[in-house]
Amino acid sequence: MIRILAFVAALLCVAPAIAQPLPANLDKANAIVIDTTKGRIVIKLRNDLAPQHAERIKLLAREGYYNNVPFHRVIEGFMAQTGDGKNFNGTGGSKYPNLPAEFSNVPYKRGIVGMARTSDPNSANSQFFIMFAEGSSLNGKYTVIGEVVAGMDVVDKIKRGEPVADPDKMVKVQVASDIK
Length: 180
Description:
It is an enzyme of class 5 (isomerase). The chain is α+β, with helices and mostly antiparallel strands. The protein has helices spanning 2-18, 51-62, 152-157; strands at 31-36, 40-45, 69-70, 73-75, 79-82, 112-115, 128-131, 144-150, 169-175. Mean pLDDT is 92; it is low at 3-12 and 14-18.
């Protein structure tokens, strides 16, 4: 009975987001849809700026790597980080090798999505972050992989913390073109 109630609660959290249409003129082959415990976020991937990173995000989404992964590091006025489908705490990466940096001159501002990495510029793997506000200190130092085109209000609702106690999660992540 408890499992059934938990399942119904999870559906209620995601169900309103599923009914939302995707933005018009969205290149669905280069966008991901993240259904979270707070609602839906749609990210336009910038394969023109970071083709290897965009392909990695799509690969991991298609493998289900991001499903039920928490937003483990969420700093007020800065960013929300997620994508550790291995350890769920920001210390893990995927089974694939790290990616070489694909830096651009796109500035880090509200809604920009970047790849997380260690101090090594060529260490991005699976984790990414969404900016709450401008972050010029990241410009040219972290790979921009996309931009939120719908759901920044959802990003704003993500529980804060470093680490986050009882974090919000990406319940399901899909490439937009795969959604039937």
